[in-house]
TrEMBL record:
<protein>
    <submittedName>
        <fullName>Putative transcriptional regulator</fullName>
    </submittedName>
</protein>
<dbReference type="InterPro" id="IPR001387">
    <property type="entry name" value="Cro/C1-type_HTH"/>
</dbReference>
<dbReference type="InterPro" id="IPR010982">
    <property type="entry name" value="Lambda_DNA-bd_dom_sf"/>
</dbReference>
<dbReference type="InterPro" id="IPR011990">
    <property type="entry name" value="TPR-like_helical_dom_sf"/>
</dbReference>
<dbReference type="GO" id="GO:0003677">
    <property type="term" value="F:DNA binding"/>
</dbReference>
<feature type="domain" description="HTH cro/C1-type">
    <location>
        <begin position="74"/>
        <end position="130"/>
    </location>
</feature>
<dbReference type="Pfam" id="PF13560">
    <property type="entry name" value="HTH_31"/>
</dbReference>
Amino acid sequence: MVDSLSGNWIEWFAPAAEVCATRRRGSKRPYEQGIAWSGTFRTPCISDRLVGSSHSAEGVTVHGENSLAIGHRVKIHRERAGMSRPVLAGLIGKSAEWLKAVENGRLQTPRLSMLLRIAQALEIADLAELTGGGHSVPVAVFAGERHAALTRVQAALTDFRTAASDREPNVQHLAERLRQAWQIRHSSPDHRTQLGSLLPGLLRDAQRAARTVGPERRSARKLLAGVYQLADFYVAYQPAPELVWMVADRGLEQGYEADDPYVIACSAWSMVQALRDSGRWEEAIGLARDAIERLEPYVVRDETADDWRGIVGALEAEIAYVHARRGRFGEAWAAWETADDYARRLGPAYRHVQTSFSAPVMSAHAVTLGVELRRSGEALRAAEGFDADRIVSVPRRSRHFIEVARAYAQRDQLAAAFALLSKSERTAPETIRYNGYAREMMLDLLKSPPSGMRADVRELGRRIGIAA
């Protein structure tokens, strides 16, 4: 298997880091044979550790394996920032006990994605301050850029003013605004900018409606959960991971308060992704299974709306993704087949608005499973087996092209990978601009462009905000 994407790690982190990737021999599990990915960022496989020669840092002498020293560096920067262990742990989605074990060297070095979260929470601009080695590794290179409206969206999320409005909130009008916002999100190449303009007002009005005591409060809570589900698509891939947890948690809370199994399941879908991207596999699967079980008594009834079956299918697809990320081939495809069965029964015209769950997207999921399981040939055959134009959501279609590019990159077919990244950019520039997988592939292409394509690669890099 060709490790076409690991060169820059060796150059940037050496001698402070060593990537096992495809160099480990004797590995049997797919995720142990190649580079693992986590959330926004591509990461070394799970047993990678940063290593380096002996040196001193902040009174700590480091010898050989650097795992303990990195934990000490985290502790030093945390204390320097005046931050308690529970506070930092909460910001990165981990327990205080886990962070203590890292700081004390009882756990191996965290993945790169987690080191990036720690660096962002501690406002560290250079990852080398945590990893050592003397090689500058700017956090911004991997974290991506901050969208212009992020501050306004964040302010709306933390606006707890309860002053009475001049008029009672109109839940029906808010529901129509939310419906239109979903439509705009799925149809716009600049979907993040569009959401950035709509979300601040929608969040404030929906939050105000849910705080109002009255007969429509339950409906307002369900609507607010839907707004948080929409906001999840905006805060994803932004250098503010705490917002991902915030909107996922609040969406679930509103679903439980409204006592609505469907709303709970839709909010669980968002939380499952946050748990998955933090490597909390069992929690992600457990939450998805719990949400599915809540819906099972309803989905067998003829009068139940199709969307209830659609969210069950979407949750099964997420379970498949979690299994693929952890290298469980059989379990991944078993869950995919269950989800695909729901998609086929719902018919070719069905699409779940929030999750984009549909027959075409299940074909796209097959591509992603192949990529995550390091079976790029299967991924490419899945991509060739359906027409991507059938994916209604413009951002989801653009993301699919990135997944196909990943499959080509795994086979070291860099010209083909570049062609798919270009196609993704033409489809939805604001998908590729903020996608960590795409940014990492572009960094590698800028470093080693396919023959005769240097100018084209640089131009695409410029358009998506990555300098040569």
